[in-house]
Amino acid sequence: MKKILIVSTEIVKDKYSCSLITAKVVEELSRKHHVDVVTEWMAVFNFEHNIQNIWVTQKPFLYDVCRSRGGKRIFATLKFRYDKIIRTLAFRKLIKKINFNSYDYVIAFGGGDFFIAHRVLSEFSMKAKLWGYIHDPYPSQVYPYPYYSEETKKTKAELELYQKVFEQYDTLWFPSTLLAHHMQKFYHYSDAKVFVFPHLLPNIDVKKIPVETEKLNEYGVVCNHFFIHAGTILPPRKIDTLIQAFSKLKEDKKIAQELKLLFVGNINYDYQHLLGIKDVILIDRRVPYNEINMLCKAAKALLIIEHDGNFSPFLPGKFPEYLAFKKPIMHFGPKHSEINFICGEEHNSFSAPLTDFEAISKVLLHGGEPLSENEKIMSHFNIERLIASF
Q: Where's the Glycosyltransferase subfamily 4-like N-terminal domain (predicted)?
């Protein structure tokens, strides 16, 4: 048994994808090892765990002022993230009290647009092996197209700062191989530092999820007669071509006439021209997690939508969730993507670029791939591989 300290920004299991994996790692590692946690005051431990000690930062007096509408306007005008600074100070104050030399491993977690825990831990010397989990690229110029932003003096300075921060780490942990290689171009760490382990398969007991006919009726679908995409549709993820391909297949009677296409989640671009298309249902709002699970269980196939670029180093959190449902999966996004890297060429019939009408039509006609039946793919998400690393 190892002694592990996990230092993480807010842990709220059902809020962010990074918080989800942090919660899952804490849950799993604490079953096998002695695990202590340092986190923030807004953490919610709404999951099973065997944590030995939890230390929480104190909520800074000015935090609510910074997060208020007026505070956000002021600091946006100043281009200044004061909330980030006071959270960093709160972490530093608490972490100073920790005896790092009593641990075998110290792991920094944090998502979103900064690495508070990573930065603070890099300031302390320790005998423990220091690991840093890198969920997303940072700063903005490190993102690939279409999320890339031009470099500024501020982001250049941050890039230089985190170059020095990451040099203090023994291991940098990434959820995808392509993300590790992509960020290496900016931060120049060695291959020896890289550890890749993806988002974990969720603990979903599919058999216990009730499929309610009345609730399906509210969404306008019938069990096993619809394809579903669950998640936010951003401007780079426009679904126009996908809907056009689906409608043409229905018009030509190449797919079942009772089949419907359901999108559930916020749609963040002008989609008025897509309303009223036969058998296409757009639910432009957040839906409760239990209803998403019910819809996924009832669906004929599950859709993952990335973006219209040529490269995606990200592993969508929906991918391991969808695998847990053991349904056929379709992927619409770049060919050069982490999903295709994991699945390999033998499964290329389930994926198509988001703006390629012909390729999308072939994937829809094929109906997706039962990827959960592939042992190689499922072993990629095996928690024992992570546990054995400590």
A: 26-198
